[in-house]
Amino acid sequence: MKTAPTLSSAFLEAAAGKLPAPLQALRAQRGKALADMPLPTRKTENWKYSSRYLKLTDELAASLPSGRNSGPGLAVDGYHVVIHNGVLVPEASDFPDVDGIEIRSFVDLDDDTAQHLADRLDNTLDNNAVQMARLNTARFEDGLYIRLRQDAVLDRPLFVIFEADAEAAGSVYPRIYVDAGANSQMTLVEEYISTGDQTALVDAVTEFSLADGANVTNVRLSLEGENIHHIGATGARLLGHARLDSHCVGFGGPLRRHDLQVRLEAPGANCRLNGVAVTQDKQHFDNHTTIEHVAPHCDSEETYRNIAADESHAIFNGRIHIHKDAQKSNANMSNKNLLLSTGAEIDTKPELEIYADDVKCAHGATVGQLDETALFYLVSRGIDRREANTLLSMAFINELIEQIPVEAVRETVQARLNRFIEQAFEGA
Amino acid sequence: MLSIRNLHAAVDGKEILKGIDLEIKPGEVHAIMGPNGSGKSTLSAVLAGNEAYEVTEGDILLDGENLLEKETEERARDGIFLAFQYPVEIPGVSNLQFLRTAVNAMRVHRGLDELSAVDFMKLAKETTKQVDLDPAFLKRGVNEGFSGGEKKRNEILQALLLEPRLAILDETDSGLDIDALKVVADGVNALRSPERAILMVTHYQRLLNHIVPDFVHVLAGGRIVKSGGRELALELEERGYGWLGIKDSDEVEAG
Questions:
Q1: pTM of the model
Q2: With a cut of 0.85, is the ipTM above it?
Q3: Interchain proximity B106–A373, CB inside 8 Å
Q4: Which of B75, B84, B98, B165 to mutate to test the interface with A (most CBs of A within 10 A)?
């Protein structure tokens, strides 16, 4: 019998850098546990369609040198934090000075706070389902700890720009933990970008812990280049009447994986999860989401759309788990897919596990092509065929993009999607 | 301007048009009438370049050029406009964006500069008044949730903005109440000009009370069986299609 491959030791021998002791201890502990962890293969259910894109070569094990920053991300109104190869760049960052809000680099934490954080890291994620997030905890060299006290409100969005600078081959491990106190509010925009042209792995984890009535908007933009393999996980746990509004927009790459796990743990907690992924050429994008309805009277609304062109491959796996006591749960999940070529592949799988009897749970998944009637209508007005195709493809995802509550992000994303889709129709 | 010669066309292998001849000159308004299933909508679709229809024989010339060799979008830029019987709803594409893209495609083709968003907005708002459409409709998805009458007015709005050489109106009167019919007819009459021709395809003569045609043709069984002036339409109204030896499933309504 063939044994499943495990992570090469090269991945587990990185120095902990300047992290405070409690975080170093956590890291070492995770590293040990990882040594025997089997890597996902095509027989691993949640990596069935994506294991073939996962290539954890020793070359990628090296940490990428950090501390420089080559340019800003979205130049928009808000607070900016730049994380270069997993490490905060203070001189490029503009921290908010708002009562009740602390935003700190992991390496700057005192031992007590670091211990407090170490006790919480990973507690929003089901680590059995998010194998690769564990690697982040074993490897992060820095991170961003965001703490909102009760009733604190961040007045402008916080943009965190994660730049993977791949001048050499290697890997980076961006990390954020958001601890949102009761009735606090913030908008966090995560922007993953890259420079350099060597092969690199980005293994990113963001976690949210929302106390009663906290309201967090999270926009996650996956904009890295063709040389970047990206594995990301976002975890959130919500207490009573807390709300998470999540918008994930991703462009394909050689490996793009995002796991989003939301736990609704007390009555009234609710979430909206929107996602858009576009792929072309031989690109890949895999979104795996899980919504745990743990408590009664919680609502979840999930809408994901994919557009796959050429010979690309998009995957959506949406799991809704309604626990035994979660009566009066209200869960809606929809995944629609647009195939722009016969060579493209879409795999979509809703997974519903319902153990309560008084719930409303609806789901739907479709895979389709552009509507010929609509296309004829547009070209009959003199509109160029490629432009008409682009308009119709954008129409397919616009509804979701328009819900992104930060105007500048919406516009940038729209323009980028438009360019990407135009490209997909080039020469078609 | 437009010459249709011995046009035969089929859909799914079934021949619908069986030899149409028609000459349209600039400034003329032609009406094509006929019972259901006579091939009226097929003729409109073939002129616009709908690929679901296959031309099996004959020619269509626009200003001497072979129209059949051109793609739908090229025909549109050359001045063919089809007002759809059933305008398509396209959620996610705003009417404004759609109209501006189309108008600018035309302008580029005609060697004019593209209109800026601001200039186009002005023009579009102005034109909505002409068809009595609330400018708020510009912000909505293309035809999304529009009533039947609003959709038809949106078609005429497009014709006014795109300034075609030949406007083909496919059953533009269907589903309209008398007020909406009048608004649409006013729009069409505003389109009339010495350089522009209009081809109206209709089952009923009531539209022709508002848009007076120069020529009326009766289409039956895929052929034009009779042509005449405006009085032919009135005669059809009075006598139905029966006296021409045509069976009409909608005879009662048509009469």
A1: 0.89
A2: yes
A3: no
A4: B98
